[in-house]
Design goal:
This protein is mainly β. It has a single domain, classed as Pectate Lyase C-like (3 Solenoid). A hairpin with a 5-residue loop joins strand 1 and strand 2.
């Protein structure tokens, strides 16, 4: 593998107390007018094929990005082993369409507050973040993930440091008072085989968003086979559109700390139990939603007490989602866990194939959000859920919501939810390593028939600059759409390993 020769750099940051790699690093900056050129050079051996089968130079990235930098599609960029690569200060990292970024063990790319990433691919030339390992040996958690941090408001005390980074690290802080904060742009971007647990309760996700504001542009994003959450959002007002999350090890979409953004056209497909026994996580919730602060109360505070004085509350607005489980009876997967005082408006949601249950409401503050009309699910369709196919809500064998009846809420007539209208036939087989089955082509099962229940009974999305008001159907894709015309066609991929 050829590492381009440039000066030796200092390791930007680590996720643990390990030394940096012994390889001579190379600077990823294409503008070298302010770059020193002296110092030892790197490996100048022959080039090697990349995961795409082409022969390209590989740039080993080991140090912070402190000036405007462009990563070009004629090279592959490799995040150094166990290195946290920061984009910091006022620097902008621009990534060209078709560029591939490889992650080593426990490496990650963190875009700090005031810095930006501009990663705008195309449908024919997506930008791909993936494992450095060869296809066939890749696993969830091969590398850390992508983190964007901004200055939008969150409901926890500042300074606030993002999960997945240990120690006191100012470059990993997020949150502020600028709800229009701009973390940059991701468009036609894939993130594969990312996420790992630093320690219990502190993980990196495929894509982590901390305090990102409404000026951030996130469209056409796939997070595939991550070890922890697909996307986790910590506060802020960031919007998401055209998102695919496949095979998340924990929750597909997780929000916390007062997220008030918008989302439309999001599809989450949970996967069955991984054939490799070393991969012990195979998906939990399609959505896990948290609202209030729970970890800043005085020591000794009894369980079930929530600090409701911290604002803003989590109140996102989401239209046209598809949340699918794996239909694997051995997988502990459910559709939604709404807890800790979250709010939110969820409309036109298609939910099916969950092995355990549909919706669970936890904690009295969450019930308070329901009774104040700040949390609602309407115009949605639930089908093939739970062992008997009709477990729409949590059976509440343990009372964690003050006796609230989720079934009555979900089935409230004016909410126009439909329970039991089968829209997508469930998988009849559980894929294995020897027979991956439907995992080779998940989208083939995602589009409802034109005459299905998903084609009617939907709410009209808001008429603003973000939502597509023509999406008057249930789910993330218009029923009857051909695979070639689906919004995910051409830029998503579904490698098993």
């Amino acid at each position: 593998m050829r590492h381009l020769p440039l000066l030796t750099l200092t390791l930007a940051g680590c996720l643990g107390p390990w030394p940096g790699p012994s390889d001579t690093p190379t600077d990823a900056t294409t503008d070298t007018s302010d770059t020193e050129t002296d110092g030892p050079t790197g490996d100048t051996g022959t080039t090697e094929p990349t995961h795409t089968g082409t022969v390209q130079d590989v740039v080993l990235v080991t140090d912070s990005i402190t000036q405007n930098t462009t990563w070009t599609a004629d090279k592959v960029y490799e995040l150094a082993n166990r290195a946290t690569i920061y984009v910091e200060g006022n620097a902008v990292l621009t990534i060209e369409p078709g560029t591939t970024i490889l992650g080593n063990a426990e490496s990650s790319l963190v875009v700090s507050r005031d810095a930006r990433i501009e990663a705008r691919g195309t449908a024919s030339q997506p930008i791909v973040f993936t494992s450095v390992k060869e296809p066939g040996s890749r696993r969830p958690g091969d590398w850390g993930g992508l983190v964007l941090l901004g200055n939008a408001s969150v409901n926890k005390s500042l300074p606030r440091q993002i999960e997945g980074v240990v120690g006191d690290e100012p470059r990993a802080q997020y949150g502020g008072s600028d709800d229009a904060s701009n973390c940059g742009a991701l468009d036609y971007v894939r993130i594969e085989f990312a996420g790992f647990e630093v320690f219990d309760g502190n993980e990196l996700n495929g894509l982590t968003l901390g305090g990102c504001g409404s000026s951030t542009f996130l469209r056409h994003i796939q997070v595939h086979r991550g070890l922890d959450d697909g996307i986790e959002i910590f506060g802020g007002t960031v919007d998401l559109k055209y998102v695919v999350i496949t095979g998340a090890g924990d929750d597909s979409l997780d929000w916390d700390e007062g997220w008030r953004g918008r989302a439309q056209f999001l599809l989450a497909q949970q996967y069955p139990t991984h054939p490799d026994p070393s991969v012990t996580k195979n998906g939990d919730e399609g959505i896990e939603a948290d609202g209030y602060v729970t970890d800043e109360l005085p020591a000794g505070t009894p369980d079930g007490i929530f600090d409701t004085n911290h604002t803003p509350y989590s109140t996102p607005t989401l239209y046209n989602l598809t949340l699918l489980g794996s239909a694997d009876p051995t997988a502990a997967q459910s559709a939604m866990d709404l807890k800790e005082g979250t709010g939110g408006t969820l409309r036109n949601v298609l939910v099916g194939w969950q092995p355990i249950r549909g919706v669970d409401v936890e904690h009295p503050p969450t019930v308070d959000m329901i009774t104040s009309q700040q949390l609602k699910i309407t115009n949605s369709v639930f089908f093939d859920i739970g062992p008997t196919g009709d477990v729409w809500v949590d059976p509440d064998t343990t009372d964690d919501d003050g006796g609230f009846d989720e079934q009555v809420w979900l089935d409230f007539p004016s909410y126009a939810n439909r329970l039991g209208d089968e829209v997508l036939p469930p998988p009849t087989e559980v894929p294995t390593a020897a027979a991956p089955g439907w995992l080779l082509d998940p989208p083939a099962r995602w589009v409802p028939d034109a005459g299905s229940a998903a084609a009617s009974g939907a709410a009209t999305p808001p008429a603003d600059e973000f939502f597509d008001v023509s999406a008057t159907y249930v789910g993330a894709i218009r029923p009857g759409t051909t695979q070639g015309a689906a919004w995910w066609a051409g830029w998503t991929a579904f490698p098993v390993d």
